[in-house]
Amino acid sequence: MLAADTRRRAELLGRLHRASYEWRWPTVRTAHAMTLTGHPCARSASSQGFALTGRKISVWDAPSAHYLIVSAAVDGGQSLSLFLVARDAPGLTRHDYRLIDGTQCADIDMQSVAATLLLSGRQAAERLDEAADRLALVRVAEALGIMEQVLDLTADYLRNRSQFGQPLARFQALQHRLAEMFVEVQEVRSVLYRGLAYIEAPAPTRQAAVSAAKVVANSASRLWAH
User: Fold this and answer.
1) CATH top-level class of 126-225
2) C or N terminus of the chain, fewer CB within 10 Å?
3) Closest residue by Cα to residue 149 from 226, 224, 217, 218
4) Residue 31: what are its φ and ψ, rounded to 5°?
């Protein structure tokens, strides 16, 4: 296992605890790197750290982050390590853009960018998987909030809009659709709570709970889309 810079890691974790910085994981959308060209390659530049070369794409909220935590393979190896990279590090180029929902995003190009090793080997893989699961639950919670808002707006519209001399809420077909939306909201909320309850559990249990939350939220979202 590679030796991490423990002093540097402790310093930055302390700042994170004090909410002094914003952090982003370039790879947390899945358990694998979101890249076009594979994982960046990390080479030992000196006793002071590593140099990263490669690309990460679709890094959510990267424009507002002070630091990026980047997964990379060391000298072309198979296992991944996690490195800390400053957003203004020499050799790092950020291409900012917004997603269709307005979320800030960026593609990150790195050419011999100085990086601090945080974790390597099995520890790095486990932490990366855990971060992906936590982010998945964040997105499920976001989807739940959107569903609740849409449900409230729809109910209010049906109560106040009239057709054929009576409120739309009196039409049975629309009542059934609204009831179906209500049930879906409760199901998503329940499975989200279950995922949160198991987020500190062993990896297999946690991953099963998170996967269930993703499936239920995705299914419910299709109802809202139609």
Assistant:
1) mainly alpha
2) C
3) 224
4) -75, -5
